[in-house]
Amino acid sequence: MTIQLHGFTSSAKRYIQVQSQPHHITGILRKMLCLCGSKYESKLMDTESTYFECEEDGTITFYQALNTDEVQSGIWTYLVYECAESEEQVFQDKFIDTSINSLQKLLAGQKLVQDAVGIYEYLKYKFYESEYLDVILPSDWDNITGKAIANLLLEEFKALNSSSLFAENIGKKYMNTVINKFIQLGREVLETGSTITDFELRQYDVLKNIRIGEIANLIIEHNDYLLWQSSLPSKSKAVEYAFSAALDLICRIN
Fold it and tell me: Counting CB atoms within 10 angstroms of each CB, which of 28, 143, 208, 246 has the fewest?
């Protein structure tokens, strides 16, 4: 058996309705922009239907324009689970807001408020969604030192994600290791009541304890001065450290 949901046909899936979050709405907006190739509100609202799949939280969000007297246009978000054939089912909650008010706010140039669950989510939304979302720091980071550390982490996140060097394999492994260890360091600094200066000094200790050979060799293997030119100078200690290690290795080889 297959089911049709908001113009979307699927099988062997179970859909449980949840409240649409700001990042679901921005996902719909981006899909609409891709479909119509225009930022004009009138053209965007001509989109009859589209959907956005968010792999990170296992949801799929549907937008449907319904021009009838009985049914209004709406946005529906569901958690999606695999299920056995013939057991497909949709669990809907009639109390969940399915209006397009949030989408209309975005189209009017307003930002949606997104409460970050954790600091990594904060960094991700600030980097990828800052055009559309006003991201709020997690409560345990919402103090003078926490905000200062979050700003430094964001600079690291931006620099690492902006270079193709760290997009996959060895580079991505290095990036994830650095970000995770810097976040852990940030938590330790906040828990012990230390200062932003302590965090910055201890960042170098973190980098010295990360295996640097693989990423240094990768930089050398690229053998591309444009990579150095586009990456340096950088506000990221992790980027500077990786290229410094590559330079040291080149000097030893020569």
Answer: 208
Phi, psi of 4 (to 5 degrees): -115, 125
Contacts of 230 (CB under 8 A, 6+ apart): 163
Contacting residues for 254 by C-beta, under 8 A, at least 6 apart: none
Structure pTM? Answer: 0.86
DSSP string of the chain, one letter each residue: -EEEETTEEEESEEEEEEPPPHHHHHHHHHHHHHHH----HHHHTT--EEEEEETTTTEEEEEE---SSS---EEEEEEEEE--TT--EEE--TTS---SHHHHHHHTTPPEEEE-SSHHHHHHHHHHSTTTEEEEPPGGG-SHHHHHHHHHHHHHHHHHHTSGGGSSHHHHHHHHHHHHHHHHHHHHHHHTT--HHHHHHHHHHHHHTS--HHHHHHHHHH--HHHHHHH-S-S-HHHHHHHHHHHHHHHHH-
* pLDDT per position as a tens digit, 224-243: 888 888 889 999 999 999 99
CB within 8 Å of 37: residues ≥ 6 apart: none
Cβ 241 vs Cβ 182: under 8 Å: no
> At 87, which amino acid appears?
E
pLDDT digits (tens, 9 = 90+) for 100-153: 999 999 988 999 999 999 999 999 999 999 999 999 999 999 999 999 999 999
| Distance in angstroms (rounded) separating the CA atoms of residues 144 and 236 | 21
Name the one residue in this structure whose structure tokens are 């990456």.
231
